[in-house]
């Protein structure tokens, strides 16, 4: 099921320098009513699952829709890129993903964690990978 939603809402926990209001345009609404950005959405973070890796830079999240840690603040965005579904979470509130998991259409998945070293260098570390096929 999909629908077109044009709305403006305050995003709890959004950094002031990135603005606290966002216009949501054409998200897909999954069964159960959970919105998910798709390739048709201008709110899609820049990420290519085919080339994502250790040297990929920060992934700015654009439309947080879930509170994954239960603290009352939206911190997670789900979106589709090609045949992959991405779940990305901003655990420190800076607007960039700190953890992300990518699921491909064959059931494979990779989980990554973003790290900033004391010298200012940034990198992603794969924390898990595998397949959900046959479960």
UniProtKB/TrEMBL annotation:
<feature type="compositionally biased region" description="Basic and acidic residues">
    <location>
        <begin position="114"/>
        <end position="129"/>
    </location>
</feature>
<dbReference type="InterPro" id="IPR046543">
    <property type="entry name" value="DUF6802"/>
</dbReference>
<dbReference type="Pfam" id="PF20615">
    <property type="entry name" value="DUF6802"/>
</dbReference>
<feature type="domain" description="DUF6802">
    <location>
        <begin position="39"/>
        <end position="133"/>
    </location>
</feature>
<feature type="region of interest" description="Disordered">
    <location>
        <begin position="114"/>
        <end position="135"/>
    </location>
</feature>
<protein>
    <recommendedName>
        <fullName>DUF6802 domain-containing protein</fullName>
    </recommendedName>
</protein>
<feature type="region of interest" description="Disordered">
    <location>
        <begin position="1"/>
        <end position="20"/>
    </location>
</feature>
């Amino acid at each position: 099921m999909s629908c077109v939603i044009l709305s403006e809402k305050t995003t709890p926990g959004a950094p002031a320098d990135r603005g606290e209001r966002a216009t949501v345009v054409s998200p897909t609404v999954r069964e159960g009513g959970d919105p998910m950005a798709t390739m048709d959405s201008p709110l899609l973070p820049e990420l290519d699952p085919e080339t994502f890796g250790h040297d990929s830079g920060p992934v700015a999240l654009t439309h947080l829709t879930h509170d994954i840690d239960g603290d009352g603040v939206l911190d997670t965005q789900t979106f589709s890129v090609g045949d992959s579904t991405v779940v990305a979470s901003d655990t420190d509130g800076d607007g960039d993903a700190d953890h992300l998991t990518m699921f491909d259409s064959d059931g494979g998945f990779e989980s990554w964690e973003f790290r900033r070293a004391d010298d200012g260098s940034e990198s992603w570390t794969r924390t898990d990978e595998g397949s959900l096929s046959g479960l």
